[in-house]
Amino acid sequence: MLSTDRDLKRGGERFPIPSQGEVEGRLLMFEVVAVTCLQELLAKPETRLVSRLRRRLIRNLKKRCARLKLCADDEKASEQFALQLLRAALEEAEDERSH
Is residue 87 within 8 Å of 57, Cβ to Cβ? Predict the structure, then answer.
């Protein structure tokens, strides 16, 4: 997000902090991509898919937390938050699929 070459740009392009609309737009895109991918995955008949997905999410998150050298409390909080996001995305995917 922060970049030294922004100083040479004109107008709003030179500001390193994105607007609330930009942040909301990016979050919306992340949500749409996540829900769409989960809908495709859930359309498959494999029953253990969600538990495999959950395990892989936790494993990938632990790798990234280790690189950031997060303390155990922060790592646990990020894991809980990620699982909450996954649960919410799964619910959204199920709701959209049933309509």
Answer: no
Please, are residues 65 and 13 in contact by the beta-carbon 8 Å criterion? no
Chain segment 24-80, per-residue pLDDT in tens:
888 888 878 887 888 887 777 677 888 888 899 899 888 988 888 888 898 899 899
Tokens 């919410």 — which residue? 88
Could you tell me the CA-to-CA distances from 68 to 5, 26, 62 in Å, in that order? 26, 23, 10
- Cβ neighbours for 38, distance < 8 A, ≥ 6 positions apart: 89, 90, 92, 93
For the entire predicted model, the pTM comes to: 0.62
What are the tokens at 4? 């030294």
